[in-house]
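Hello again, I could really use a second opinion on something today. I've been staring at a protein lately and its backbone has me curious. Please have a think about how the structure follows from the sequence. I owe you a coffee for this, so here goes:
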Amino acid sequence: MEKVYRNELKYMINKQQAKVISSRLQHICALDKNADEQGYYRISSLYFDDYIDSGVYDKLAGITKRKKFRIRIYNGQDVVIKLERKAKNANACIKDSVTITREEYDRIIAGDLTFMQDTKNPVLRDFYILSKTRQLRPKVIVDYRRKAFIYRYGNVRITMDVNMNGSIGQHDLFSSVSYLPAMDEAQTILEVKYTGYLPAVIKDMIQHGSGNMQAISKYATCRMLG
């Protein structure tokens, strides 16, 4: 089955804009089931890059076709650990993921990828090959809080990310990590993700008050901290 690219629109907005858009969306969208009483949940992602930091420099150079790997956890827990591969082409992307165990995660962090040698999983296989040929290594942890809205009439997801921080030196999601702020506390990253077309009702809510679309990379931003 052929993979379908998913569109991603990104905006940097302020607290007032976020409040207005949230109040509009809450009437027609459902919150992500993992949200706390404030509507947020925490995401921590360990990003990998090759020996020449292609993920950073390709982004800064404006190269439209890029690929990156990350390991993602939620709310600081090891209940669900995902190794994700994200391929981008301009404002469209394809994300594939595989769930790994805590033992497999620990082995990856220790540089032991032998359990991937004979895998048939395409994400694990690609990660293993690039680790061997391009010296793929952990580079930075990106940590932030997210509010996510799901619009049930269509494959649409709107997220608002706040309090983004980047790790300094440490590369273990489950250890004590020192962070530096990667964005102003008054800012919110608004992302609109959809397949096919964006319903007019969502488009109108987002466009009125969200400002201009921007090419925002959480990974590149947090790498620049160091």
About this structure: The longest strand covers residues 137-151. The chain has a mean pLDDT of 92. The longest helix spans residues 122-133.
